[in-house]
Write a structure and sequence with these properties.
By secondary structure, this protein is mainly α. It folds into two domains: 1-21 and 228-480, no CATH class; 39-223, no CATH class. It is built from 22 helices and no strands. It has helices at 3-38, 41-62, 65-72, 79-106, 108-116, 121-146, 150-160, 162-174, 178-199, 212-222, 225-246, 249-262, 267-283, 288-311, 313-318, 331-344, 350-354, 358-383, 385-407, 418-436, 441-458, 460-479. α16 runs parallel beside α19 (385-407).
Length: 480
């Protein structure tokens, strides 16, 4: 297959699985600013803390079987065996979910104090309902992704993403308090989960199970992923949890709003990740050179997107409510973390998954969490949300470095990381300049443009490749 045919096929598949992501992104741009006018920072902080806690329990209940399902899906070509694998993974996750629901009931008082600031019995119920719904949603969405059912996958992604956000923002217009929004989130999660599972009802059989040897392999792969996932959750959620303790719930609202805005850069990751890992598992033995091309292209597009978002900081915050304007200072720094995590997906770190050395992921995430905790403890008392943003960025850099070094021991497809490192340094410079020259508009924008030009020069071969692909496709379409 020629390079152009390969790129065309890859882009076609990525685009197909990205429709929901792009729609979620577009509607999210509208909903995020609206939420800052509907909710006060303290209410938005409580809502985001609720989501943080129920996602913690959700990750535990997956028991790593969601990732095992993806990893082992292509181990067989028989549809009946793949459905059996799906039913088995879902069943055990739901069993754990039932136990977690009971456990949450005993912690209701503590959790409601953390989330709302006062004791409320409904928080425990809402956490349990959201947890159950999220587990079902996750597996149903993974199934459609692995089946390459683009239409069903897109509909589900939209309902799980922007549909959820729209539901509680609309509820906030009716009654702008955190508890009402939390109840709506829980009901929405459960309702959409029931719709999804009803759609799959004829394909699910909890009585059939894979053979014992396959079950053993499944759990040997999945169990080590549980601590990895929980440490990853801790790493990403630590700023919110510490701000809630060291500052107040309003700081959590301001920080999470800025973090959600910064996560817009994740559109690149979400856009290709749904297709990337299945592609890797199918082609890693034969397509190393083409995977290297994808690494450079994705890294370039991701960093360029980050630089453009940093340039657009003033425009973005023009539409944000006055109570959240202090988040403008940390927005460029928060952009760094999702960019590094996006790049992580296209480095030699995938060697860890290919070799099934999940304990190395645990080591990497633990190192990253230790960096985050140490820097947060040092910087947050001095600089507040700015310290939290800096700690998050540096811990993501530690994770990228560790995962890449560990993965290269088992699989290599990237020959050099010089371009990537230089691109990341340009991004860091942009974030620092944007904060240091906040009152010098023309100087700041001039220097940001210079950084973008330097990035394009560094990745000139990738720019030429992209331009050539666009030119060829344009000529083909013009002839048609």
């Amino acid at each position: 297959m020629s390079d152009n045919s390969f790129v065309k096929k890859f882009i076609k598949n990525v685009t197909g699985f990205s429709v929901g992501t792009f729609v979620n992104f577009g509607l999210g741009i509208l909903i995020l600013p609206i939420s800052t006018y509907v909710f006060k920072p303290e209410d938005l902080g409580s809502i985001n803390l609720f989501i943080t806690y129920y996602m913690f329990f959700t990750y535990f209940c997956y028991l790593g079987l969601d990732q095992a399902f993806v990893r082992f899906y292509h181990e067989t070509n028989l549809p009946s065996e793949r459905r059996k694998l799906f039913s088995y993974c879902l069943k055990y996750s739901l069993i754990i979910t039932g136990g977690a629901f009971v456990f949450i009931c005993f912690l209701t008082s503590y959790l409601s104090e953390e989330i709302l600031g006062y004791s409320n019995i409904y928080i425990g119920i809402c956490l349990g309902i959201s947890l159950t719904g999220q587990v079902i949603l996750r597996y149903c969405n993974l199934l459609k992704r692995m089946e390459c059912n683009i239409v069903a996958f897109t509909v589900q992604a939209l309902l799980m993403g922007i549909g959820l956000k729209a539901s509680y923002v609309l509820a906030g217009i009716w009654k702008d308090d955190a508890l009402t929004a939390i109840v709506v989130i829980s009901v929405y999660n459960l309702f959409t989960a029931l719709v999804f599972i009803f759609y799959e009802r004829k394909e699910i059989s909890f009585t059939n199970r894979p053979d014992r040897l396959f079950q053993k392999s499944l759990f040997q792969y999945s169990i080590p992923l549980v601590p990895i996932t929980l440490v990853s959750w801790l790493n990403s959620s630590l700023p919110q949890l510490l701000l809630n303790k060291l500052a107040d719930i309003s700081s959590v609202g301001i920080y999470t709003n800025a973090a959600n805005l910064a996560a817009m850069v994740s559109i690149v990751k979400e856009g290709f990740a749904n297709y990337w890992m299945p592609f890797v598992y199918e082609n890693y033995k034969t397509e190393q050179e083409k995977m290297a091309q994808i690494h450079h292209i994705i890294t370039f597009i991701t960093i360029l997107t980050g630089l453009l978002l940093i340039m657009a900081t003033d425009i973005i915050y023009f539409f944000i409510g006055k109570s959240y304007q202090s988040g403008k200072v940390i927005f460029p720094i928060l952009i760094i973390s999702p960019i590094l995590l996006t790049i992580l997906n296209v480095t030699d770190s995938i060697g860890i998954s290919i070799a099934k050395k999940n304990h190395l992921q645990l080591i990497a995430y633990t190192i990253s969490a230790i960096v985050n905790i140490g820097l947060s403890a040092l910087l947050m008392p001095l600089y507040g949300i700015l310290g939290a943003a800096a700690a998050t960025a540096l811990s993501s850099a530690a994770l990228l470095g560790c995962m890449t070094v560990f993965g290269r021991k088992y699989y290599r497809f990237v020959h050099s990381y010089k371009k990537m490192i230089l691109g990341i340094l340009l991004l860091v410079c942009a974030a620092i300049l944007n904060g240091a020259l906040v009152n010098q508009f023309f100087v700041r924008y001039g220097l940001l443009i210079v950084l973008i030009v330097v990035l394009i020069i560094v990745y000139r071969s990738e720019c030429i490749r992209i331009a050539e692909f666009i030119r060829i496709e344009y000529r083909k379409r013009k002839k048609q």
